[in-house]
Sequence to fold (606 residues):
Amino acid sequence: MSRKSSSQQDSEELYCICRKKYRDGVFMIECDACQDWFHGSCVSISETEGDDIDRFYCPNCTSEKGPTVYKPRRNNHRHQFSEDGAENKAIQAGTVAFVDWLKKRKFENADTVIKQMKGSDVTLARLEEQGFEHPIMVKEKLGLGLFVPPPDFAVTDVERHVDPDRLVDVIDVNRQEDFKMTVADWRAYFNTPPEKRNRTLNVISLEFSDTKLSEFVEPPTVVQNLDWVEQCWPDQDEDEELSSPHVTSTNTTNDGAQKATRPKVQKYCLMSAQHSYTDFHVDFGGSSVWYHVLKGEKVFYLIRPTATNVETYARWHEEDAQSENFLGDLVDHCYQCRVKPGSTLLIPSGWIHAVLTPVDSLVFGGNFIHSLAVQLQLDAYQLEAQLKVQDRHLFPHFEMLNWYGAQHLADQSQRRRIMGVDVPSYMRVGMLALLRTLRSWTQADKIHFHRHEIPESLPYSRVIRKLADEVKALGLTETKPGRPPRQPYQRTPSISTVTRSSEQRSVSKPATNESNSMRPAGVSSSTVTSSHSNNSGISSRVDSLGPAVPVRTGSVMKTTSPLSVPTCLSSKLNTAGDKGGIEAVKRPTPAGITDSVSPAKMKKED
Fold:
């Protein structure tokens, strides 16, 4: 595959039919005849589509050489469409065959775990009293305080209110890989009839707080009242000056000092093509989510964050063959929830979920960190550290926000005590969790790694001392929470095992009635492992908003020691349904399927 780095470019050389200079980060493809380079947008070829091309001929060469030649497609159930022997290999998440398989599955109805509420009933006082431990469905936004565009608002309108040249992250659903497109190119793709699209693409990370589109959207009132960014973060002109330059999301002042910018995760626009799928994940930093379907429909597959389920999720996330194992088959319960146009879903902290898009959809939503789930949020952040999630996939300035949250909770507690008002249990639990965590972050052997996230305006010793005083005044005991016993990671003995290369572990596939009943006749139920490294990986965002805790996008993430789950992601939830161990259930292997893919010659900034 031909590539040229930006350092190899002649700054004066002109390319493409547009005769413009090379621009870093913009996808280009080389003509196999004239060897000139062309912008993908100028020849109507997306970066991900380039992988399917065998020989590319530019508009100037097609009269002599003929049209561009695509690789023959050998399968529709593997991320690599040209994979040898794919007919004997399991279905991978996100592929055409997987979506067909998933749509035929039967799941428990989520009505048993979701609270159906009127918009006017979803208030801060109600959640403080009853807790926010289960998803909430609001079928009509009346009384919710939510403002979104009218139902006839379209992707073309999104382009008009967001810079058409803005680059957005796009997920190739069939490959479970991401790339970038301009908003204008995305609009052209999305407005193409579904039957004429050659790829299933998904945009789920367009945060638009700094655009004109923001004027049309306001999160639900309860979200704004809970959100620590809204309630605790300083005003924009008071953004924190950083004590270290090694921090993302910064602004540079006139005097050269860097300031941490206000986290922008409150307003996302999700534009998903029909049959888009996002694999199981937890939202970054254990944040909660609000999610309003303006057009189309979304199907959520929900898993409660019990201790066993979270450990199962962490183990599953480590697997090289993660994309071949459906997490919903490895846990105690997996619930299905359909979100129709005009409905709003609020997902609490820690809930593990996957999302299917049955029809083209336009959704607005956002993430928020709050006081009702402090321990769960800190546990999720610890899990991200154990799984070595890249900084760009973390909740922006999560640690700094928790310092502000600690100050906020201590002030609220003190105010309530002075007024003779009871301090609720969620505040007590939250202050204890923060006190332990902040002390840990500021230990002599650890503070070097955390100092850059300590706000300059909040001397950390003073915040910790105030938290400790409140904990003492409330008669709370500073003890570490109990950890439930770790369940062993078990797999059912396999019929046969195929040994992988050094970078891919052997994975056994047990015979299961459910899986084998869906396997075509003549195909063995033995485990056949993928030669393609796990690509369902950590994406910058996933369908329930926010760069998630962890959903893969390419590289395999491993740990050299057994993974333990942080304190207890189910401290407030009923764990009676937990079960130990994992029985690996793989999706069936289809027979007689043809598809294919192969890299084309590209030119972009590595």
User: Anything to note?
Assistant: The mean pLDDT is 79. The chain has 14 helices and 22 strands. The longest strand covers residues 352-368. Residues 318 and 557 are 6 Å apart (CA to CA).
